[in-house]
Amino acid sequence: MTVMRFPVVLLLAGVLGLTGCARYQQTALYQLDGGNLSVPTASQGLAVLLGPVSIADYLQREALLQRQLDGSLTSAESARWAGNLAAELDQQLLRQLASRLNSQRLVAAPAAPGFTPQVKVALSITRLDSGPLRPAVLEAQWRLSAADGKLLDGRLVRLEEAHQGSIADQVRAQSLVVQQLVEQLAMAVEEYAAPAPVAVQPAPKRAPSKPAPQPSEPQIPVAEPQRIEGEVFRF
Q1: Is 0.85 topped by the overall pTM?
Q2: 214 pLDDT exceeds 90?
Q3: Per CATH, the architecture of 52-193 is what?
């Protein structure tokens, strides 16, 4: 009986070993790439309020979702985001926009009392995903408003970026579409936050001055021959 049970014990040990390896299989963690960001140096740059920023519910998780050909979403088996994707997007948007505007005066909503922005940026991201056979797609809507709430500009955006199919290249493509969105925002903010050019009033035209009258030449009387009437005597 003992001889018959030994192969069974080896088989069970092998199965448990494989199960343990599968359970502890290392999962790759990914973050969005912000590109070549620089720390803003202008402490008195543009004052911008970023927010509110709303992100689709399906993106508020750590699972790295894959868009399939039929439009469905499935979680990647061996990869996930290093943190909550919505929180990662908030940080990336703020840091990238500050870098492109070279301004330390960017604040995420809600702003602290006393902060008066030159421009307010409201953003809604409704889609950000990709799949092995689907490109990276970002769909969003942004609005710019002045400090008094007056709407300055707004736009619906759809950005696409191709990739090679791997998870790493999909994350690269998703990072690029986020960078393109921030570039659009930076250009719009710079356009509407720039002070209006001061109109230079043209100098009034001066009427042409009249030439000073020339002194008239003295009139010299002309001597005219005087006719003397007299009697003529003939002999």
Answers
A1: no
A2: no
A3: 3-Layer(aba) Sandwich (3.40)
